[in-house]
From TrEMBL:
<comment type="similarity">
    <text>Belongs to the MscS (TC 1.A.23) family.</text>
</comment>
<dbReference type="InterPro" id="IPR010920">
    <property type="entry name" value="LSM_dom_sf"/>
</dbReference>
<protein>
    <submittedName>
        <fullName>Mechanosensitive ion channel family protein</fullName>
    </submittedName>
</protein>
<dbReference type="InterPro" id="IPR045276">
    <property type="entry name" value="YbiO_bact"/>
</dbReference>
<dbReference type="InterPro" id="IPR011014">
    <property type="entry name" value="MscS_channel_TM-2"/>
</dbReference>
<feature type="transmembrane region" description="Helical">
    <location>
        <begin position="74"/>
        <end position="93"/>
    </location>
</feature>
<feature type="transmembrane region" description="Helical">
    <location>
        <begin position="99"/>
        <end position="121"/>
    </location>
</feature>
<keyword id="KW-1003">Cell membrane</keyword>
<feature type="transmembrane region" description="Helical">
    <location>
        <begin position="20"/>
        <end position="46"/>
    </location>
</feature>
<dbReference type="Pfam" id="PF00924">
    <property type="entry name" value="MS_channel_2nd"/>
</dbReference>
<dbReference type="InterPro" id="IPR006685">
    <property type="entry name" value="MscS_channel_2nd"/>
</dbReference>
<keyword id="KW-0812">Transmembrane</keyword>
<feature type="domain" description="Mechanosensitive ion channel MscS">
    <location>
        <begin position="120"/>
        <end position="183"/>
    </location>
</feature>
<keyword id="KW-0472">Membrane</keyword>
<dbReference type="InterPro" id="IPR049142">
    <property type="entry name" value="MS_channel_1st"/>
</dbReference>
<feature type="domain" description="Mechanosensitive ion channel transmembrane helices 2/3">
    <location>
        <begin position="79"/>
        <end position="118"/>
    </location>
</feature>
<keyword id="KW-1133">Transmembrane helix</keyword>
Length: 295
């Protein structure tokens, strides 16, 4: 009974200890202040990031909004993780927990994870710099190694490409050593048209230019009227005329098909007209021959 009374007295002494309650009150106030300051700092940094991304987006000629959104989200996540980590350490120190051993244990654990996940770390770092340097963006057509396609997703760890045949390639960012981006600047369509040797050079050039008249209206990807450079190569039976045209990014194939189709149509029309003229001349000769024989 006496032990129970002594234990009750000790509990009452703790409860009635004014200094303890003052310490708890001040600790609670400090914890609340730390939490509020952390939230304020995060909000301020978020606003700075948003304004900085908005200024950069307005100042660029060629803007990819997805890129700025992705970079902004990455910076916000990094800010949130850093501030919350510091807040947790301060809160632990407020409740008399030694953070030194925790930091040492976290350092050893992080080192072990780093050695075991070198590939993952490389993928993440490479993905961050791909986004930061705007090497390519969602919607661009790129080629890396043997893979070529349209960028569908850019992540911190992987990039997803969709080929023109519908195949989906998921590529770890750490394996991307070099990239060819077909969507960053205008392309140059180059078309070689073989011509029969019985056509003179002036006739061929005239026909080709006639077929290209107004092509920029038929195909909006063409920046300006194609240039007919002249003979590219020749043999005893034919010669090749080269045509070049500046076109929009990643539209070279469609522009080349447009030029080839238009030239083919004018050559077919010229061949039909020539054949019709020959048949008409032969018919006139026959009529004249028949008339002379009858006389």
């Amino acid at each position: 009974m006496s032990n129970a009374i002594r234990w009750t007295d000790k509990v009452w002494d703790k409860i009635s200890d004014a200094d303890m309650w003052l310490n708890i009150m001040f600790s609670s106030i400090r914890i609340l202040i730390i939490f509020i300051i952390t939230r304020i700092v995060i909000k301020v940094v978020y606003r700075i990031i948003d304004r900085s991304m908005a200024r950069k987006q307005e100042g660029k000629i060629r803007v990819n909004p997805r890129r700025f959104v992705t970079i902004g989200e990455l910076l916000k996540n990094a800010t949130s993780i850093t501030c919350n980590f510091i807040m947790i350490l301060l809160l632990l120190s407020e409740i008399d927990i030694q953070v030194g051993p925790l930091l040492a244990s976290a350092g050893v654990l992080g080192l072990a994870i780093g050695f075991g996940a070198q590939g993952l770390v490389k993928d993440v770092i490479t993905g961050f710099f791909i986004i930061l340097e705007d090497q390519f963006a969602v919607g661009d057509v790129i080629q890396t190694g043997s893979y070529k396609g349209t960028v569908e997703v850019i992540g911190l760890r992987t990039t997803k490409l969709v080929s023109w045949q519908g195949e989906v390639h998921i590529i770890p960012n750490g394996t991307i050593a070099s990239v060819t981006n077909y969507s960053m600047s205008n392309s140059l369509a180059v078309v070689d048209i073989p011509m029969k040797a019985d056509l003179t050079l002036d006739e061929s050039v005239h026909l080709v230019k006639q077929s290209l008249a107004g092509i920029e209206e038929r195909n909006l990807n063409i920046v300006k009227v194609p240039d007919v450079l002249g003979i590219q190569s020749m043999s005893t039976s034919e010669y090749v005329i080269r045509i070049v045209s500046e076109c929009m990014p990643n539209s070279r194939a469609s522009v080349e098909r447009q030029i080839q189709g238009d030239v083919k149509k004018i050559l077919e029309y010229h061949e039909r007209s020539k054949q019709a003229a020959l048949e008409q001349a032969a018919a006139l000769d026959n009529d004249e021959g028949d008339g002379a024989g009858g006389a």
